[in-house]
From TrEMBL:
Compartment(s) of residence: Membrane
Name of protein: Transmembrane 7 superfamily member 3
Spans traversing the lipid bilayer: 278-295, 302-322, 328-349, 356-376, 388-408, 420-442
The keyword Transmembrane helix is assigned to this record: yes
């Protein structure tokens, strides 16, 4: 940024613009900046002026004293100037909403008479012609909405009617392409936003840099939902296309980080709670051990899988039926997971059912595999907006895993311990550094817990951090599976049932008198003798008395 030039325009109160050229400017609340563009060509019929700031709202207006119908307020706002015949100069006014100075960037983009006019058929918002995209977000999803466009027309002409008909000579022929663009991961700086917002402001650069998520017709509702990625910057814009003239125009780009910059807790710089970090770090330590030694330490493996299976469904249940705080729910989930893990171990010890244990382990791996399938662009297909179609397909893919490995349970267990155990390391990393790989399972949880999440598009960025963490996950998975397969190839598939082994050993000791263990007292008697021995250590020694023997 040219700081000297920015301060010059701010002090002078005048910002000279050129069509299509971005200018950076500092705004304050008391002294509005007058933005002017001169020598407008006669073939230009519409100019869209826009201003962008990172987190603070700015006011953009046609008049020095803004009114509701002639101004817009927000971090990303713009106005449409419909040019009169012979008009060569346009003026707008800018100021910040807050008391401090706000760094912003502004640009004016021209359009011709055959280009559609974004927001030209606005019936919902305050401006008569509103090219803005309105965005709101939660921790779960992002919602954008906009006003329909109108057909272009010549200077001084009457705008085409918005409700004259639905034929090909009306606005109903227009199409809307919705684009998404991700900012660099783990970068919340203003400079980065100011440079990248330029890539999503004009039609050609939007098509070159953005990802087209969907196309809407005039019959569709003018609102779209996306999965929220707290802490990850994202820019949205819409290109309206007139197929008759093959002309296009862009709305005002809008950005969000799906988090707050000003909150003291859980702001954009520190999203993960301490309880989340403790929970997933501890789980990752156990998962890393299971990744390499799960099959050898069979009971630990069972506890790990039972913990994940129980904790997942218990968290869903307690979130659905209670209004407890997140920290309390996480603590209760950890307790429930421990109980579930111990229950699976106890079930194996008493009944020795490999089939039951492998069914649970197979479901855990199957759920992760199915989540990975829907994490790909396949998950954004319109057919999976239907919950019945989604859950039938998801469950079928998840159940396919234990079915395929029903004849080789040892391989299934080693695969599950390697892949699932290493993925817990990814979840732990996500508590400290942003990575899109965490949304493999998080999006599944969101869909279960939120009734309307099915309408959200779940595209995520895949940048340098994600490639590095994906490589770590792949390396851990392959290493864990390979080590276990080589070590266990000459061992028995599974240990004998502990309860049956203990029962046989007890019968052998009770009938074989030659076995030294046959003469070992029962456990209860041994504990009692041990306690007596400990008690004697603390008793004071009695003095010996002198006695004379009787004659």
């Amino acid at each position: 940024l040219d700081k000297k030039k920015v301060f010059f325009f701010f002090n002078a109160g005048l910002l000279e613009l050129s069509l299509g050229k971005f200018r950076n400017v500092l705004l304050n609340q008391t002294n509005p900046v007058e933005a002017v563009i001169r020598n407008i060509a006669s073939n230009v019929t519409v100019i869209i002026f826009q201003v962008h700031a990172q987190q603070s709202d700015v006011v953009i207006s046609f008049d020095k004293n803004p009114s509701v119908n002639s101004s817009g307020t927000g971090a990303d706002r713009g106005l449409v100037s419909i040019l009169r015949p012979q008009q060569t100069v346009c003026t707008w006014y800018l100021r910040s909403m807050g008391t401090g100075q706000v760094l912003s960037t502004a640009v004016s983009i021209p359009y011709m008479e055959k280009d559609p006019i974004p927001g030209g058929c606005n019936l919902e918002f305050d401006l008569e012609v509103d090219p803005n995209i309105y965005l709101d977000y939660t921790l779960v999803d992002i919602h954008i909405k906009f006003a329909p466009a109108n057909l272009g027309y010549t200077r001084g002409g009457n705008p085409p009617s918005c409700d004259s008909g639905t034929g090909q000579d009306s606005r109903w022929r227009l199409r809307y392409d919705v684009y998404q663009y991700f900012l660099p991961e783990n970068d919340l700086s203003e400079m980065v936003l100011m440079s990248h917002i330029q890539k999503m402001s004009e039609v050609q650069s939007i098509r070159a840099n953005g990802v087209k998520m969907l196309t809407l017709t005039t019959d569709d509702k003018t609102n779209v939902y996306f999965s929220a990625l707290p802490g990850q910057g994202v820019i949205y814009n819409i290109i309206v296309w007139d197929p008759h003239w093959n002309t296009s125009a862009a709305y005002i780009p809008v950005h969000t980080y799906a988090c707050s910059f000003v909150d003291l807790a859980d702001n954009c710089s520190s999203l993960s709670k301490l309880s989340t970090k403790v929970f997933f770090t501890a789980l990752a330590v156990l998962g890393l051990f299971t990744c390499f030694f799960g099959h050898r330490f069979w009971k630990t493996d069972l506890f790990f899988m039972g913990f994940i299976f129980t904790a997942f469904f218990f968290f869903i249940f307690i979130t659905r039926v209670t209004g407890l705080s997140y920290d309390v729910r996480l603590i209760l989930t950890a307790v429930a997971g421990i109980i579930g893990g111990l229950f699976l171990v106890a079930s194996w010890w008493r009944f020795g059912s490999v089939l039951l244990c492998m069914y649970v382990i197979g479901l855990v791996l199957g759920f992760l595999f199915s989540s990975m399938v829907f994490f790909t662009p396949l998950g954004d297909y319109r057919v999976f907006r239907d919950d019945v179609v989604f859950w039938v397909t998801f469950s079928s893919v998840a159940l396919l895993v234990p079915v395929l490995f029903v004849g080789c349970p040892r391989i299934l267990n080693i695969l599950a311990s390697g892949v699932v155990g290493s993925y817990t390391v990814v979840l732990a990393i996500a508590c400290y550094v942003y990575t899109s790989l965490a949304y493999i399972t998080l999006d599944l949880l969101r869909r279960i817990l939120n009734n309307y999440f099915s309408r959200a598009y779940t595209n995520v960025p895949f940048q340098t951090n994600d490639f590095i963490i994906l490589s770590v996950w792949t390396m851990l998975s392959l290493s864990g599976v390979t080590v276990q397969l080589r070590r266990e190839r000459s061992e028995v598939p599974f240990p004998l049932q502990p309860y049956l082994t203990w029962k046989q050993e007890r019968e052998r000791r009770s009938t074989n008198v030659l076995d030294p263990s046959h003469h070992i007292p029962p456990l209860r008697e041994r504990i009692h003798n041990k306690l007596l021995h400990i008690k004697e250590l603390f008793q004071k020694e009695q003095p010996a008395e002198e006695r004379t023997p009787l004659l």
